[in-house]
């Protein structure tokens, strides 16, 4: 059973009228441009999980990296002063490793196995898969961000939708609403796009004392 961090990954009003529809079309264009033009990305992130009432269940932060197709990495900061590193989620495009240093445990799943369990994997896939996997709904400009929703076509996906917000064309916020109505909100900052990432970014070397579950 994947925990809330492993299932990562967004009250909006649908704009109507001619003027708003132009903005709305621009929002979907930002999404498609992100998939067409951005090959690598690295950013700091904050992650807040709230329940239906808005109560915060969890808050965390760290660094997110991606390289299309299929490679990504989430490095969480540790809440434990005795640990230098928090949870790490790393995909090399073939397998995804969920490493929890506090438990000295790593769970490894194939990329195909995890695709429905980690909605934000959509960010690292090729843009031509968007329309195959999702119904795209454009919400236009709300609260200063241009929003578009990705609603999974798979009825067993386990989440309602993935909302993606852009600020001046740049990826800014990702909001996942799960089947129970809980919301995971990721806010990105210090984005660096299309820069060469260090060798080994999408590899995770585990020590021999780590319990590996496959």
Automatic annotation (TrEMBL):
Protein name (Swiss-Prot/TrEMBL): Outer-membrane lipoprotein carrier protein
Organism, as annotated: Arenicella xantha
Keyword match Transferase: no
Cellular localization per UniProt: Periplasm
Family (UniProt): Belongs to the LolA family.
GO biological process: lipoprotein transport
Keywords, sorted A to Z: Chaperone, Lipoprotein, Periplasm, Protein transport, Signal, Transport
Coarse class of the protein's main subcellular location: periplasm
Lineage: Bacteria, Pseudomonadati, Pseudomonadota, Gammaproteobacteria, Arenicellales
GO cellular component: periplasmic space
Record note on quaternary structure: Monomer.
Any Pfam family hit: LolA
